[in-house]
Design brief:
It holds the Pfam family MFS_1. By secondary structure, the chain is mainly α. It is 54% helix and 11% strand. The longest helix has 29 residues. The protein is elongated and about 65 Å long.
Length: 140
């Protein structure tokens, strides 16, 4: 039983520690309370799904089948994470803002080009960056 608890604890730590780092890196400081609240809600929605599967599955199909189903769900989640999250993502991204950007303070040090304002900074999703960009490649 102690070995099982140790494995469960290590697995929880392996999930929870990087989650905080990902959320912190992916949000502006003023948005973090909402981002962490959303992550808390999403994780508990997953618990809301997993607990009934575990209880009813064990009652109806037995523990072995239920553990395989839950392991399959966990594996599917892990595969989705590997698929959707880039393995080598830089902390700072060079990207372009449209030429009609109204917050000129944000692009104060940017280079004006025909594509818009090009600059590099630590990237987070916020009001000026509503989606994760493809890294802009400057003409060399």
């Amino acid at each position: 039983m102690l070995v099982l608890w140790a494995v469960i604890g290590a697995g929880s730590g392996a999930i929870l520690t990087p989650t905080g780092n990902v959320l912190r890196r992916s949000s502006a400081p003023q948005d973090r309370p909402a981002v962490f609240a959303a992550q808390f809600s999403l994780s508990h929605a997953c618990w809301l799904l997993a607990y009934p599967i575990a209880g009813w599955g064990a009652t109806v199909a037995g523990y072995s089948v239920t553990w395989m189903v839950l392991a399959g769900l966990a594996g599917a989640g892990a595969c989705a994470a590997v698929w959707f999250w880039p393995a080598r993502e830089p902390v700072t991204l060079e990207h372009v803002h449209p030429a009609d950007l109204t917050d000129l303070d944000h692009v104060r040090d940017a280079a004006a080009t025909s594509a818009g304002y090009v600059h590099t900074h630590t990237f987070v999703i916020d009001d000026l960056h509503r989606q994760w960009p493809q890294q802009h490649r400057s003409a060399a």
